[in-house]
Write a structure and sequence with these properties.
This protein is mainly alpha-helical. 62% of the residues lie in helices and 5% in strands. Helix 1 packs antiparallel against helix 2, helix 1 crosses helix 3 and helix 3 crosses helix 5. The model has no long low-confidence stretch (mean pLDDT 86).
């Protein structure tokens, strides 16, 4: 399973890097073959350098940098796709504006950069702003009474998510009053170092006590980098 995960990661990494390279080459105004080759080599060397560092397990920082780099590349690709869609609409319905030199030379590049930064800001906001959604399910077995189940995915406890977020989650559960809590994977970011250092078990104990029928969790891909037994 781990070999399959790494194979998929490698394929996705090369594809994303290539897409970003083509976008950066255009955005930077690369005209010569040397400029394009330099950008291509630099991006692929950086991406695969982080991948090698992660696979060798020489540094936990390598994994975090790798995950951040992949996210940033995906955000840039989304910004490029959104810009392409916007340009298609503008060129079709506002042809005169689209053909203005200023927009063609600077407007499109500014649009990509603005969308890229907006996506990053939105992602950070969403990561720290939990959204509660209610879903009603009907099971094919009789129940003595309806049961309220809470499901919380991708806690990623560690450097960026800690006691404050756990306390916020506890407050949400106290308000919602579920009887059972499910945590399907990615409980910690990759190890227990920061969890232990910040005594997150105290906040986690408060969380567990809010649910009368208990908490059931599974490991996710971020939980299986050497500390799965501790997690």
């Amino acid at each position: 399973m781990r070999i399959f995960f790494f194979a998929v990661t490698i394929i996705l990494l090369q594809s994303m890097t290539y897409g970003v390279v083509k976008g950066v080459q255009w955005w930077a105004g690369s005209r010569t073959a040397t400029q394009k080759r330099t950008i291509m080599i630099a991006f692929f060397a950086f991406s695969n350098g982080l991948l090698l560092l992660t696979m060798l397990g020489l540094s936990k920082l390598g994994f975090r940098l790798m995950a951040t780099w992949q996210a940033l590349m995906w955000f840039f690709i989304m910004a490029m796709l959104a810009t392409g869609l916007i340009n298609a609409v503008v060129s079709k319905f506002f042809d005169a504006f689209y053909r203005k030199t200023f927009y063609q030379k600077f407007g499109v590049k500014a649009l990509i950069l603005s969308l890229f930064l907006a996506i990053i800001g939105t992602a950070i906001y969403n990561a720290y702003t939990p959204t509660v959604r209610h879903i009603q399910l009907t099971v094919n077995q009789p129940l003595a009474k309806p049961i309220k189940i809470a499901m919380v995915a991708d806690l990623h406890l560690g450097v960026l998510v800690g006691n404050r977020q756990l306390d916020k989650l506890t407050a949400i559960l106290q308000q919602q009053k579920p009887e059972l809590l499910l945590i399907p994977g990615d409980v910690l970011d990759d190890d227990t170092e920061y969890y232990d250092r910040e005594n997150m078990h105290l906040a986690m104990s408060k969380l567990v006590k809010t649910v009368p029928l208990g908490v059931y969790a599974t490991l996710g891909n971020h939980d299986v980098y050497g500390h799965q037994q501790q997690i």
